[in-house]
Amino acid sequence: MDIAQDPRHDDGRPPATDDDRGDVRNIPLELFELAAEGMRASFAVLPGGRVACSLCHARTTAAGVEVLEVRRLEGTSDPEAEAIVLGLRCPSCGVLGSAVLGYGPMASAEDQDVLAALAVDVVGGPP
User: What pLDDT digit, counting tens, does each position of 21-78 carry?
Assistant: First the structure.
C-alpha cells in the first residue's frame, strides 16, 4: 500500500480498531499520519538490532537512530497481536521515516532486538 493514500473508507470512516483516545487506529492510518508529518521513508528491521533506511540504504545499529514517535497498537479480536509504529530519523542522511514492529509475545527476535536497542518503552513511549 502506498502510505501517501488515505486508508479511510470512501465515505470518510476510518477502519475499525479502537484505542484509548476514543478514535479508530490501525497500522495504515498511523503510517498515513506519520507520512503527513514528513516521515515518508521507511526503516526495515535487520538481524542483530540493526535497521536499514529506505532512502540512503544505510544499515545501522538501531541504538543510533533517533525515535521521534511511538504509537502502540493492539488487535481488537486478539490483544496479543501487538504492533508498534515508530517515527524515526536516519542517523546517516537525516530523513524522517517509520517502522512497524511487533512487540509482546508475538514479536520476532529481530523486532525485540531493535526495540531493545532503541530503548523504546512499549508501554509509555520513548525514554
Answer: 445 679 999 999 999 999 999 999 999 999 999 999 999 999 999 999 999 988 666 6
Cell of 47: 538481524
φ, ψ for residue 46, nearest 5 deg: -120, 160
pLDDT (0 to 100) of residue 1: 39
Q: What values do phi and psi take at 107, rounded to 5?
A: -75, 145
What residue type is assigned to position 54 of the chain? Answer: S
What is the C-alpha separation between 103 and 101, in angstroms, rounded?
A: 7
Q: Could you tell me the sign of the dihedral formed by the alpha carbons of 8, 89, 63, 93, in that order?
A: positive
Percentages of the chain per state (helix, strand, coil), in multiples of 5 = 20, 30, 45
Local structure of residue 18 (DSSP, 8 states): B
| Element holding 113 (H helix, E strand) | helix 109-118
Cell numbers of 70, please? 511511538
Strand order across the beta sheet in which 66-74 lies: 59-61, 50-53, 41-46, 96-102, 82-89, 66-74
Domain spans of the chain, in order of start: 37-118
Record the pTM.
0.75
